[in-house]
Structure formats: structure tokens, C-alpha cells
Amino acid sequence: MKKHHTSFVLLTLFFTGLIVYWWADKAEIDEPANAHLVLPGLNKFDAAGIQRVVIERPKGQKIVFQRREPNDWQMKEPVDVAANSAMVTTLVGNLRALRRSSEAGTIEGSDDKFGFAPPAATIRFYGDDPNKPVAELEVGSLVKAFRDQRYVRAVGPNAKGIDVIDSRMVSQTELPPVDWREKNTFDMPTFYVDAITVTGPGRDLRVKRDDAHWAIESPLTAPADDEKVEGLAAELSSLRVAEGEKGFVKDNVSDFAPYGLDKPVMTITLKDRRPSIPLQILEVGKPLADKPELRYARRKDQDDVVLIDAKGIADLGMKPNALRNQKVADVNPGRTTFVTIAAADRTFKLAQTSSEWVVVEPKRGKADPAAVLSFLTRLGQLQTSEFLEPGQILDPRLDPPIYTIKVWQAEPNAKLPAEPPDSPKGKPRVDLRIGRHDAIRKSLFGQLEGD
To answer: Which helix (H) or strand (E) covers residue 262, if one does?
Structure first.
């Protein structure tokens, strides 16, 4: 009998526990995981949904940030300029995870005792409704006995009083507006750079990632030196405003002529490999009279002028050969769709379909796949011993050439056609003219289109 009574009591406790758990869930009692958070409402709100952040300080000082892109913030007050997006994102992340001190607990007391009369700063976070903050926090004074801790107080209907937190979590609120400005001229990590374009008087350059390598697309089509282009991408990604606070020359500019930015000497465009990220464009103007290595510049999407140290990019886009690989052409046989070989008055045309290689001209028929593969492989292995200016060689026989080779390639993952076309579409990947054979150099002279 005793065992039956014990079983009955245990079953009663078990079902009572289930009922209490169900009631707690229906009553929306905070989960223990959120009990230590100062702003549990902000933690529950999706960080990507925060559209606006406002920091107010005494004497009417206010800094306002507005989200422009998923990972891009704009400072709207006190000036309308690009914000340091990483800093704003860090602040949002810090306050979403803001923990109260487990030892101090929640404190009650007068405002002046804890630095809330007035608070050192008030931080508000907004979602889609610009008039209703989803979370609000007041920052008080440092804890006298522990200078690495600070008093804070959540504001709202569910606020529980004053908490003690790690002061580093809100230290950013003490920074002046200039420290929140974006100092990088490009906000793009090197490994995300997919293409670099440089234009301007005497400048023409476009390099693009192709599979795992870099290729020059303008002013000629040729393989690029991967190490050199990666170095260029790293240099551009790390390009910053020079001269500290003085580097922010002027805000809200309407006339860019005094800075040489009405007709920039150089425009640099970076393309991100992530499709959702817009192009980032930097315009570079004239140099300072007393410091010619410093130049005026501005981001295309902003109206403020800054100074940059441009000595490392002074010749950018003027010497495309500086970024070239020794390989003459970058040929991928598997992606090759069409080949033409012209010599004298004869032209051979080859097309690759989804099933075979086909001779299109002079007489249609099946091609020898092994011979075509060998030809394309050898073409892709050609290397130059040196790059020569046209005037350095006497009669290279390139105008007209002895014969011309053109190769068209499909984009990565593109499907080959089921039937061979009569002619190719678009610009060839390789457009190589071959001239005379130099017996002394034991070499052929060649020239790529646009080179």
C-alpha cells in the first residue's frame, strides 16, 4: 500500500509540473535564457530589422544613424555622411546581448545617485515605425568602486529598474560624431572584390575574377597576374581618409570643381561578388598644392569631400601591362564554344556542342576532339618572354598578320548548345594575331586585340 501511495504522489507532482509549465508558457513568462538581459525586447527583435539608431546626449547633442543597405549605415545627424557601419552594427549587437550583473541584481534609487539626472546618453532603436522605438536604454554614471562597470536603465512598460553592466558595452556612446564617420573609402573586404574598373584621362583598366584567377578585360583581354591584382585589391580595400579629422575636408558640397572632382582624374569602381551589394565608386580629384601625394576624393554616393594618400595608386589604369601574367591567353577548353583560325584567304571554324566538336568551315563535319583539345591546351600554355612597344620591332608582320586565332568561351556553368552555330556571338575571349618568326630570338611576334 505504501508503494501505491508513493506512486500516486509522484504522478500528482508530475502532472502538476506539466500544468505549471503550460501556464508559464501561455502567460509568456520570460525564459531563463532572457532573464539576464537588460533589453530582452531588443534581443527578440531581428537585428536586421533595426532601421534607425539614435544616441542623445545632454545639451541637445544627437547622433542619428539610418540603415541604407543590409550591412550599410548612413549618419543622418549632425551631418549626412557615410557612417562606420561596423561600429553601428557592433553597438546593436552589444545591446542585444547586454547582460546585467548577476551580483548586483536590479537596483532601485534616485536618478542623481546613479547618473540619470540627466543620463550620460539615451539610446533608442527603431524598426519600421520611425516614431515608436522597439527598445530604449539610458546610460548612467560609472560605478565608483568598479570603474569597468556602469549603471544603465531600460525604458519602457516592462522596465525593471537600474542595472549594472560592463561599461565597455556602451563606451561608444561617448564618442564624438567624427569618430562614427566611415574612414575607409571602400567598405569591401578584399576577398569579396570581384572586379576592379579604373577610368579617367589616359586611364583604362578592368580586371575581373574568372573562376579562381584574375583576367584583364580592358583595354585588352589577357590573363592577369593573380598576386599583383590581389595586392591591388588589398590596397584599395584599405584606402582610408588621410590626415585624421582634417581629412574630412567639407560636407554637403554642391560645387566639386574647386577640388577637381567635377572632372575626376581617376574613377575607381569595385564590384562585390555578392549580387545584393551595390557597386562602390570612388572619384579622385586634384592634389593639394603643398602635399601632392594627397588628393581630394569622394565616394560617388556621398556629397562630402575627403583627402586620401594616392601615391600608391597614382599610375593606376595607365599601365595595364603592369598587372599582366606572362601567359598570352587564358583558355579553358571545357568552356570554349567557338574557334576561328584565319590564314591568308582561308578560314577554319570550329564549334563545340553539348556532345561533340564540329567543323563549321570550310566543310561541315565532325572534328577530331583529341586534336582540338591539344590545340587549345597548347594555346593556353603560350607564354611571352617580354612585352614590347610596337616601335621597338622592325617589321613584326602584324599588320596584316600572318594568321589570326580567335576563341570564344561561355560563362562558368553555362550550357553548351545542342547544335553548332554558324558564327559566334559576342566578344572573343582570345583575339591573337601572329606575325613573323624571329630566328635569332627563336620566337614568334604576336599581338592581342587592343594591346
So the answer is: none
